[in-house]
């Protein structure tokens, strides 16, 4: 039903790159291809190569390089008069904005990308842009607004047999079910995503699905199994140099250890994840790892007033980012720890 996963963001001369190519390899080849395209005066080839530079840099946590690369890709695509290539560049910019915590800007860029893709007749770019809008809304916790779009994109991906996009949609919907307490449904969808990703050789999607499965198993008290799955996912993240995914994996390991009452281990793990997120300038991950760290320290006997002050600061930070579900997590932490605002 599903073909082998492919990476449509690797375009033109870079189209032969695998979805599982290491990001360092992608970056090296993309930089070389961009230089060659610029020497040859091929604006479209430069746009394609610049997109790959932007995406590899973003996933490696090299934010400033990614910012420069997607804008340069857009300028090259505009010179070439190719709206599809313009759409892909703006999609990359919107994805980067979401990673940096600027969700309003992410929605703006992704909406523009969807329109450019529509006018340029690039169905895949439009699908990725709409998926980006759906994911941005999901991260904010606005499930009612984006749930239907997730389901629509899942149906389209299934119909076209696009394994990578099917996996993404399944994981997004599963996350919403998990966050609203429908653990059985969430587990089924994460497991389906993992199976599809594994058969389609989508290592990145498989790693994210394993993280989701581990989360739900941990909520059921299956700590050992959850940690085993996270260890498997971590190996993939390290092999592909998925810096952001690795940090989120570590943050989830902290969650699993915290739920098991292993507070000192959780504290150390959250602290490590916090530094990883700070190093890549990812405010959402920084705040979530920080919340875990505050909770672990509180369980280890930290002063209540200091804990309350930290939770207040996190609440303001998450509110500024527009993360509704994460703010609910702060409220639950207050109740769990017996700390007033």
Quick overview:
The chain is an all-alpha fold. Helix content is about 80%, strand content about 0%. It is globular, with a radius of gyration of 20 Å.
Number of separate helices: 16
In which range does the helix fraction lie? over 70%
CATH class of the domain at 1-140: Mainly Alpha
Number of strands: 0
Distance between the termini: 52 Å
How many strands, what sense, and barrel or not for the largest sheet? none
The helix-and-strand class reads: mainly alpha
Strand content: under 5%
Shape: globular
Radius of gyration: 20 Å
Quaternary form: single chain
SSE order: HHHHHHHHHHHHHHHH
Runs in which pLDDT lies below 50 for 5 or more consecutive residues are: none
Q: What is the CATH superfamily classification of the domain at 1-140?
A: Tetratricopeptide repeat domain
The name of the CATH architecture of the domain at 1-140 is Alpha Horseshoe
CATH topology of the domain at 1-140: Serine Threonine Protein Phosphatase 5, Tetratricopeptide repeat
Summarize model confidence as the mean pLDDT.
93
What can you tell me about this protein's structure?
With 341 residues, the protein is an all-alpha fold. It has helices spanning 23-40, 43-59, 63-80, 83-99, 103-120, 123-140, 143-160, 163-179, 183-199, 203-219, 223-240, 243-259, 263-280, 283-299, 304-321, 324-337. Helix 3 runs antiparallel to helix 4. It is globular, with a radius of gyration of 20 Å. This is Tetratricopeptide repeat protein. InterPro entries: TPR-like_helical_dom_sf, TPR_rpt.
